[in-house]
Each structure stands twice: as C-alpha cells, then as structure tokens.
C-alpha cells in the first residue's frame, strides 16, 4: 500500500476556469441526486492519476487496451485516463446522469485533455450494468459511489465488471476514508447498517482479488484507491 500526496503531469495545469465550471455543475447535480453522485466535489487530479494507474502500467507495454470508465461525472477521472492512453486504446465513458453525459460529450469536443482521445472515446448515457454483457475490457475504472448503494446493488455491479473484464484485466475503484466512522456518528441506524453490509462486501472482493491499494490524501475527502485483477492469463 502506498500514499499519493499530490497531482502529477498535465492534469495539474487544468485551468482554473475549467475547474470552476466543472465544480459548479457537479455541486448543483450533487444537491439534486446525492444518492447517485456520492460527493459534492469532483475528484482531484491526484485521485485521477491514481485511478489511471493500470492504463499507464498496461500488462503488455505499447499494446492497446479497451477501457471502461463507469460514472464519468464531469470528467475529472476521464482526464487522468485520457492522459495515459496511447494510440489504439478505446474508451467507453458511461454516465447515468444525462447532464453529466452531455458535459463529457462537450469535453471530447473542446477540452484540451479530452479532445486528443475524442476519436477513440464513446459516451454512453446509461447505467453501467445496462451496457450489455457481450462487451470486453482490459481495464475498468469505476467512480461509482458504492458507499451509497445497497450490498446487492454493488454485488450486481462488481459481478458485471468481472463478467466483461478479460482474464488478467484490472478493475480500479475508490472509496472515501473514514466514511464508516462518520456514518457511525451521524447516520440513522438502518443507513449505517446498509453501509456496513456494503463495505463488508467490497472488502471481500478486495481480499479475494486486490493487487494494490493506495491512499490519496490530495482529494476532498481523502480516498482509498483499490486495484483488483481478474484471475487468468492476460492475452
Ligand atoms: C462520485 S461521482 C464520480 C464522478 C467523477 N468520476 C469524479 O470522480 O469526479 C459518481 C458518478 O457516477 C454516476 N453514476 C452513479 N451510478 C451510476 C451507474 N449505475 N451507472 C453509471 N453512472 C452512475 C453519477 O451520476 C456520478 O456522476
């Protein structure tokens, strides 16, 4: 396990104007749909960098990979993925909130970090498990707020990820630090128990398939990034 403290690379130069625009949109949608959005601020460049780890360190150097990002939001993590992509990679950006999906489409046209991968990227305005089971990916990056979901809903999503992931492929996702402790103090009992069940389920997947976990302090709130590998040989 390691700790990541600061952003790196071209993401740190994201213009203030773009950050403010993304933050305003994110915050306004979080007020309307907190259950699905899961936080009030977009992820930081440091978290994006960590989430894109297995796009950078691909199993076979220079071999293109098929990438799925679930829950693209305002594109904070998508930018980290785009920065790590090489020619031949493909990227499916899935986002259930139509306002966010339209925003990501616009980023592919106009954002300096996203437009270079526009020809290889497709935005899907839908729930990730409605994407269909006939797809295959080498890398899945999930920004979904598991802590807000029931254990059954998270199990369905994790099962879906591992079904469409190639053997040897990786799944990266994050969760905020201290969520359980905060909920123990402020949440109603049934919400605390729901979240405890979800977090046991997620921990079980990490125990079975985890290959690496990193703490990212340079994010509000600080986060754990977990990387899991589907058993089997990389093609
Ligand atoms: C915590 S936000 C992360 C946004 C962005 N990736 C970031 O890190 O700033 C979670 C995002 O997942 C989307 N979302 C929630 N459930 C989803 C689902 N089942 N399928 C696709 N997107 C979903 C929400 O609309 C929201 O944009």
TrEMBL record:
Gene3D superfamilies hit by this protein: Vaccinia Virus protein VP39
Methyltransferase domain location: 67-169
Single GO term (MF): methyltransferase activity
CDD domains xrefs: AdoMet_MTases (cd02440)
UniProt keyword terms in alphabetical order: Methyltransferase, Transferase
InterPro entries: Methyltransf_25, SAM-dependent_MTases_sf
One Gene Ontology biological process: methylation
Keyword Transferase annotated: yes
Name under which the protein is recorded: Methyltransferase domain-containing protein
Top-level taxonomy: Bacteria, Bacillati, Actinomycetota, Actinomycetes, Streptosporangiales
């Amino acid at each position: 396990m390691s700790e990541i403290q600061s952003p790196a690379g071209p993401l740190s130069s994201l213009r203030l104007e773009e950050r403010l625009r993304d933050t305003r949109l994110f915050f306004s949608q979080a007020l309307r749909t907190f259950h699905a959005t899961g936080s009030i601020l977009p992820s930081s460049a440091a978290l994006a960098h960590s989430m894109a780890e297995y796009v950078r360190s691909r199993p076979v150097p220079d071999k293109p990979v098929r990438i799925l990002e679930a829950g693209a939001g305002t594109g904070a993590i998508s930018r980290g993925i785009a920065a790590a992509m090489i020619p031949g990679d493909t990227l499916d950006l899935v986002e259930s909130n139509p306002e966010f999906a339209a925003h990501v489409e616009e980023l592919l046209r106009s954002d300096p970090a996203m437009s270079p991968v526009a020809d290889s990227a497709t935005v899907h305005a839908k729930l990730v498990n409605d994407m269909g089971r006939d797809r295959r990916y080498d890398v899945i990056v999930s920004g979904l707020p598991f802590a807000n979901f029931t254990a059954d809903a998270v199990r369905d999503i994790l099962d879906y990820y591992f079904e469409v992931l190639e053997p040897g492929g990786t799944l990266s996702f994050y969760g905020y630090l201290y969520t359980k402790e905060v909920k123990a103090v402020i949440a109603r009992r049934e919400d605390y128990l729901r979240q405890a069940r979800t977090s046991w389920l997620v921990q079980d997947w990490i125990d079975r398939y985890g290959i690496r976990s990193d703490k990212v302090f340079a994010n509000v709130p600080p986060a754990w990034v977990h990387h899991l590998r589907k058993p089997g040989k990389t093609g």
